[in-house]
Amino acid sequence: MAWEGIQGHDDVVAGFARAAARGRVAGAYLFIGDEGVGKATFAKRLARVLTCESPGSDFTACGRCSSCIQAAADSHPDIDIVAKPEERATIPIETFIGTPEHRMREGLCWRILLRPAIGQRKVAIILDADAISEEGANCLLKTLEEPPDASVLILVGTALERQLPTIRSRCKVVRFRPLSAAVIAEVLAAEGLGEESTRREAASAAAGSLARARLLVDADVVAFRRTLFGLLACRPFHGVEAGREITAVMEAAGKEAARRRPRLKLALELAIDFYRAGLRLAATGMEPGDPLLARAAGAWLRAGGTSEQADDHLRHTLEALQAIESNANLGMLIDAWTAVIERPRQGLLASG
Ligand SMILES: [Zn+2]
Questions:
Q1: Phi and psi for 336 in degrees, rounded to 5?
Q2: What's the CA-to-centroid distance between 66 and ligand 1, angstroms?
Q3: Cα of 55 from ligand 1 centre, angstroms
Q4: Which of 9, 37, 133, 134 would be a feasible disulfide site paired with 90, CB 3.0-4.6 Å?
Q5: What spacing in Å lies between the alpha carbon of 327 and ligand 1's midpoint?
Q6: 141: CA distance to ligand 1 center in Å?
Q7: What is residue 344's predicted lDDT score, i.e. its pLDDT?
Q8: CB-based neighbours (< 5 A) of ligand 1, an ion
Q9: Where does residue 7 rank: exposed (0-12), middle (13-18), buried (19+ CB within 10 A)?
Q10: For residue 351, what pLDDT is reported?
Q11: How much distance in Å is there from the Cα of 81 to the middle of ligand 1?
Q12: Considering the domain boundaries, does residue 192 fall inside one?
């Protein structure tokens, strides 16, 4: 079963269609899957189908009823979408239960108790479920345990390990697979992004993430990827030069942190790809499928790279990636990361 515009997740659509046909739609779902595979888009589409006044027998929204029209305009009173504010490391509890002055007279947990304004059902979507704090989880427990009749809560996270056990145990987990390179290339083409050869390169380097492919299809970013792999392959590593290149590609995205952060994240993810490939090559002799990555990892190994070093760099780069998500200063993070790769002994925190 397929939904137009939702690629690569037909199995998940079919699962929901079966549940709906049997009247067994759960009260709380936890979507799990890598970033950029389309979980949030899927959640919004599901909300539209679940609130549609005359859904098709193939589990699609009719597109004509007043519910569908308001959903399409992002103004549906019964579809409630919340996310982590850009400048915060976690979702504030006010999002769930209102400000101290208006406790349980505003916020998602209060709104979901109200009668639906249009149809029979309310749907609440919590994006960035990875960023639910323990306090936030406590606010949600009662709603997750006893969701109001016919209401559906959808939490959108990445890895299951990143969810608090209290949340995990109260939701039905739905897993989203990484997208295939072919599906990604198809979507990029449909969106009119990039030339065919760039699309192919972006799709194969995207590790199943459409969001990442959309960044990679930019000509500047494609060029950056080549430069970065070249720099990572160099021994000794030139931290200042790498820092300059990363800063340039990040700043080219615009002035706002919200535009810069994904580019820095991408740079670190590419470095993670590189060190994983290096580690595998050093330890097992296995080459990565991506030719550019294979060449760079091979050069690094010939220059004397070892699996211990790759492992060490990998750990520091994962730490840096985590720091972006907890909202570190981006410029300082680049300095700290390049320094620790240049002189691994210091550790990321000691140098930052
Ligand atoms: Zn409809």
A1: -65, -40
A2: 7
A3: 6
A4: 133
A5: 39
A6: 31
A7: 67
A8: 52, 61-62, 65, 68
A9: buried
A10: 42
A11: 19
A12: no
Distance from the alpha carbon of residue 121 to the mean position of ligand 1, in angstroms: 13
Q: Supply the pLDDT for residue 352.
A: 38
HEC readout, the chain: CCECCECCCHHHHHHHHHHHHCCCCCCEEEEECCCCCCHHHHHHHHHHHHHCCCCCCCCCCCCCCHHHHHHHCCCCCCEEEECCCCCCCCECCHHHHCCHHHCCCCCHHHHCCCCCCCCCCCEEEECCHHHECHHHHHHHHHHHHCCCCCCEEEEECCCHHHCCHHHHCCCEEEECCCCCHHHHHHHHHHCCCCCHHHHHHHHHCCCCCHHHHHHHCCHHHHHHHHHHHHHHHCCCCCHHHHHHHHHHHHHCCCCCHHHHHHHHHHHHHHHHHHHHHHHHHHHHCCCCCCHHHHHHHHHHHHCCCCHHHHHHHHHHHHHHHHHHHCCCCHHHHHHHHHHHHHCHHHCHHHHC
Range of the domain at 152: 10-175
CA of 88 relative to ligand 1 center, distance in Å: 36
- How many angstroms does the Cα of residue 147 sit away from the middle of ligand 1? 23
Same domain, 157 and 264: no
Does residue 205 sit within a domain?
no
123: CA distance to ligand 1 center in Å?
15
Span from the CA of 129 to the centroid of ligand 1 (angstroms): 28
- pLDDT value, residue 99: 95
Nearest to 136 by CA among 164, 109, 96: 96
Separation of 49 CA from ligand 1 center, angstroms? Answer: 7
How far, in Å, from the CA of 60 to the mean position of ligand 1? 8
Ligand 1 center to 131 CA (angstroms): 32
Which domain-ending residue is among 115, 146, 175? Answer: 175
User: Are both 222 and 171 inside the same structural domain?
Assistant: no
Residues of the chain scoring pLDDT < 70:
344-352
171 lies in some domain = yes
